[in-house]
Amino acid sequence: MYEREESPNSSMSFQQRRLLRSVSKAMLKQSLFELWHEDFRKTDTCFEQLKISEISCSLLSMIGFGSSAILYDLSYDDYTANEKSFVIDCLYFICSISTLLLLFEIIWRTIKEHRWEQAKGIFTASDTIVTSGRIYWLIFEIMLNCIHPIWFLGDETFSYYNAKYNVMIAYSYNSIFTIICALRIYHLIRLFSVFSKYRSGRSQRVNHLNGSYPGISFTVKSLMNQSPTYGFVSMLMIGILVSGFWIRILERPIQSESKFEFSDYGNCFWYVAITMTTVGYGDIYPTTLPGRIVGSLSCIWGILSVSMMIVTLTQALEFESGQEKAWILLSRLNFKKKLQEQAASVIANAFRYKLYVKKREIEKEVRDLQLGKVKKEIYKFQRLRFKQRAMYGIDSPRDRLDKKMNQILKEHIEIKAYLFSICNTLRKIRDKTQESET
């Protein structure tokens, strides 16, 4: 007799077979050939957590920058520094604690953004912050945001020679750190982009359908295309405020020799404004090398800001193919909601006028006033309808040409059928004549 060969599974216990079955199912779920399906609830939860992290980063960055700016003003004068030493120590503590919390918050925000992208299917579940390439931007952010005024460097300075006035200019290390703290304003741009309608759940789904990513770049382009004036004013104001703050710190130590009152914020903002617009009256100007560098950067930023009004209409802010489709789709959806609200307003005003007509005790002036409102709302609705035609391309020259072409094709088919029927009739007549002759 032949012995029966035992299978490997026969010696396994029930628990072992169950474990093997669960592992096989898990491997099947992680197969490359399995289609990915987005869990919208998980995606929305991750995005809400990302919003909270952006708010926290913005608040902590502004607290750190504000405390460093106040700290610079209080520490600049030795008499004020000695008189308000307790306030200065408190500001050092607030600046350091807010910076430390900001670093932890940046790491937490990066993790939440990575998890949100995993929920969106941009990265797989096995991807990490390192494999996705986010680690480089995270390191850069940590290095940028960790710089802040430190209490043990309060009296430490460095000097350089100014050839124009033949003097040595002394800068404190903390003043340079305060200049770098002003760069934390980029957290506000991230915050505004996250709460924009162009980064909402609907926008994410529309971009996903069109093969694009609804990131900060898409949000800024959408806002600039929607309202270029606001974008221009925002760029101009950011340049004036940041550059004016830098000029004040860099030119203040030499104002006794240059006789330019750069300790006043108004003079600093005035100089930056006339520099950014390339006017340059020459009534006030920087005399230090760092101040001139900031002035040159302000001039370049001003040229870019002014030219942005033209650039938004041409090549600089053109959408990609997928982004343009998503933006058009979102504009149509928002316009549809606006059209519905206007139609409801027309119906409500017309119904109110009908009630006024039924009630005889209402004065004629009130009825005429309500009738004017109805006409006004109807006029607004008609304007929206015309705008809808232009937006959806209804009754455009191309549509009219297509209609005429379709009409010509239809007439061609009818004429062809009519000629075919005539040919059949003539063929029948010919056959009958041939039969009669025979």
Automatic annotation (TrEMBL):
Coiled coil: none annotated. The keyword Transmembrane applies. GO terms for cellular component: membrane. Keywords: Membrane, Transmembrane, Transmembrane helix. One of its GO terms (molecular function) is small conductance calcium-activated potassium channel activity. The chain crosses the membrane at residues 55-74, 86-108, 135-153, 165-186, 230-250, 262-281, 293-313. The keyword Transmembrane applies. Residues 237-317 form the Potassium channel domain. Pfam families: Ion_trans_2 (PF07885). This is Potassium channel domain-containing protein. It comes from Blepharisma stoltei.
